[in-house]
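Throughout our pipeline, every protein is held as a single compact record rather than as scattered files. The record that follows is passed on verbatim for readers who wish to inspect the format:
___
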Amino acid sequence: MWDFFQIMLELEVVGEDDHSYQVHINAIKDELRRRQPDIPIIMDRMRRTLYKRRENMGNPTEEVMEMFPFLRVPELVSS
């Protein structure tokens, strides 16, 4: 099962670079500022940034939360 997950994760990052990751992260932040955020859009962009978030998990928690503030939203991380 892990091999399947790893392959899927690697396929997700094909075509993504630091700029596109930042675009996704900014779009998530913008969407969360809306009165009624579009959760499917947020979830899709979170899926696209999973690899980058995993890369940063060794960093101090406060640094990760500053980079990815949407991780503080329980409804998004428990889905």
